[in-house]
Structures are given as structure tokens and as C-alpha cells.
Amino acid sequence: MFAKIRNELTLRYAIVMMLMMMAFIVVSSTGLLWILYQEEQQDLRSFTEEEAREQAEMYKEKTIFFQLPPKETEDVDHGAKIFYYVFDISRQIVATEEPSQLIRTGVLRIIHNWDASDGEVKLKKFLLPNGDRAVVMLCSMKIYDGSQVLGTIYVGEDISAYYHMLKMLLIMMVIISITFLIIAAFAGHSLAGKAMIPIKQAFSRQREFVADASHELRTPLSILQTSVEVVQTDNDQKLSAFSIQVLDDMKSEIRRMTRLVTDLLTLARADAGATNIIKEKFDLAATAEPLIRSVQPLAMVKEIHLEMSGDETIPIMADREKISQLLLILVDNAIKYTPKGGRVEVSLTRTVTPKTMVTIAVHDTGEGISENERKLIFERFYRVNKVRSREEGGTGLGLSIAKWIVDAHGGKIKVENTPGIGSSFIIHLPL
Ligand code: ADP
């Protein structure tokens, strides 16, 4: 139980950490990209305006467009590569400056399909002939002489290096985050373990208390029971009808308390791991038969037809006492919660496929259990109808004990039923 809580705490802590790291990566990388993009965009636009002006001046002086000296291109950005293409009004390239011929085809294709307005900056990606991915920022601007359009200049910046750098940065951030996450998960697991030490101690003290108290209560309860019986059998004493009734009530309350205390002690010992499962080989059918016979009187009182069916011999390796207790709990419940004149059937079968196992099924024609209640009935002290359970002498611990016995044998217990028609408690136990 504690290991499960500890793992759950660690998982939740790791999920919170992961979400926080993801939020940090997304916010920081988007923020960084946005700032860089805005800055580059601004630079490229001013540079394009300047060049368009310069080209217009040169054209007026020499009636030719002008090839930029290489140093100009380096002013704009360190590391980034500036290029430009000037087109005249008949869409012929008349001047160009490019750091590498490689990008030409890709950039010209983009220019050919250019759909942005004057001065607008666009980010474009394309594949280079050598298979690499190039990322460029492009800006176009018309070159004017007064109101006459002389041509168009397309200025671009190859930011592939930045792009790859940012990509690497992002990958590194993700790797670092995952590493921190793993470290945080281990630290969380260890901290959760430390935080649970006092809880474990308190829980074990409480468990010891329940076990000790139940154990201590057994002796006075059995003395009380014997005393009541002695008073009841004392013929010399003249008891009024009222006193006889009181003694009867006392006896049944003492019996109920004894059962409750025994159940509590069983569960407290099971929790503390103090109950050993002693497995032996025995025939389940032969063990069940006298047990069913012993509860027949209970069934007869309620005119319930109780029968056993299934295989004649079922050799099983299990704790005989515990399996008998399990059967008794289920049959007792079936009789308790089945109205007068109903049926209870205990079926014991051995199946080979898909796995070799023993199936114990207790079917009844009682009130059934609703879907919501089915998950809860195995919890301690959970009773669908408290008054009803009390009237029937129930403690609310029977099914918790049954589940513990099944779990301790590595089996599975489930309830199948139709409310109003009856319930079936089905148990699969490995051989
Ligand atoms: P109790 O001592 O109250 O019978 P259990 O742990 O054995 O406690 O059962 C828990 C609750 O499950 C019961 O109070 C009852 O409401 C419900 N229950 C158990 N067995 C049956 C059954 N065969 N049919 C209907 N309800 C059942």
C-alpha cells in the first residue's frame, strides 16, 4: 500500500515537473524566436529601403543598376548572409549579389511566386541542391525615380545557421530537461519515502493497537458468554420472562461482538503480515461438502435451497483453513442476503484453459448488488444496507477477509449480478 502511494506521489510530482519544464521550454523558445525575428525583420526592412534608394540614385546617375560592394552586406548582421536581386520592369535580373550560388534557384523560385506587399518581410524555407535545408528572410521593394517605377529589389538574408543553432538549442534544452526530470523523479521518490516514514509508523502503531485490543477483548468476551450460559442453565434460579429475554439478547450481542473482534484480529494480523498462508495439497470438493452441510440448517430456517455442484474431486494446493473460511463467508452472505424460498448454489470447477485453475462460484437469487456498490463491498465496514447487515448479524468485514484470502493465494475475486435477480461471487484460484 505504502509503495503504491509512494509511486503515485512520485508520478504526480514528475508530471508536474514535466509540465513546468515543457511550459518553460515553450515560453522561452517562442519568446526568443519572436524577439530575434522582430529584430531581423526590422534590420532587413531598413536595409532594403536603403538599397532601393541607393539603386535609384545610381540608376539616375549612370542609368544602370548597381552591384553592392561586399562589405555593405556584412554591416547588417554578423554571421548572417545577405543577398539581393534587382529586377527591371521587364522582370529581368539586372544586378545581383549573393554569397553562394547554391541558394539562387530556390530564392528565384520564391521570388517568382512572391505574394507579399512592398516592404513586407517573409520567412521561407527550401531545399538546396545538396539536400540541405535553407531558411531565408526576404523583403521586396520597388525602386522609384519620382513616380516612375524602375524595377524591384529583393533583399534576403540566409539565416539557416541561426535556424540550426536555435534548433540545436531547443534539442539541448529538451535533453537537459529530460535529464533534470529523471533526477527530480529519483529525488521525489526518495523524498516521498522519507515523508512516509512517520505515516508508516503511525499506521503500524494503529495496526498494533487494533490487533492488541482485539486480542485482549477475546478473553472477557468468552467469559461473558460462558457466564450468560451458566445463568441460563441454572435451573434453581427463578428468572422472569423479561430476564430470560434480556439474557438471550445479551448472548446474541456477545456472539456478534466475538465475531467482530475475531474478524478485526484476522485483518490486523493480515495487515501486519503476521498471518502465514500454510499451503497443503487437499481435495477442495471433499473439504467443501461438510462445510456446506454445516450451513444447511441456516438455509433451512429461511427455506433456501442450498446445493453444491461441479467436479467431484478438485486437488488444490492452498491453505485449507483459509479456503474454508472464504467459502463460509460467501455462502453465509448468500444465505443472509437471499429472501425466504430462494436458491443458493455453490459450484466448484477445475478449468484447464486458458490456465489451470480452480473456479469457486457462489450464485444466489437474492437482492443483488448495484454496479456502484460492487467496487465498494470489499472495503472494510462497507455495507450496502447497515441496518439489514446488523439484523443479519453482519460485521461488514466478511468480504474484506475474503478478498485478502483470495489475494494471498494469488487469485482473483469478482461479483457478477443483476440487481433484483441475484449475485454471483466468482473466484479464480491458481492450482
Ligand atoms: P456483512 O457482514 O455486512 O455481510 P460483508 O463484508 O460480508 O459484510 O459484505 C459487505 C456488504 O456486501 C454486505 O453488507 C451486503 O450489503 C453486501 N453483500 C455481500 N454479499 C452479498 C450477496 N450475496 N448479495 C447481496 N449483497 C451482498
Automatic annotation (TrEMBL):
The keyword Transmembrane helix applies. It is found in: Membrane. The chain crosses the membrane at residues 12-37, 169-192. GO terms for cellular component: plasma membrane. The keyword Transit peptide does not apply. Its EC number is 2.7.13.3. Keywords: Kinase, Membrane, Phosphoprotein, Transferase, Transmembrane, Transmembrane helix, Two-component regulatory system. One of its GO terms (molecular function) is phosphorelay sensor kinase activity. Gene3D superfamilies: 1.10.287.130, Histidine kinase-like ATPase, C-terminal domain. Residues 212-431 form the Histidine kinase domain. It catalyses: ATP + protein L-histidine = ADP + protein N-phospho-L-histidine. It comes from the Bacteria. This is histidine kinase. The lineage of its organism: Bacteria, Bacillati, Bacillota, Negativicutes, Selenomonadales.
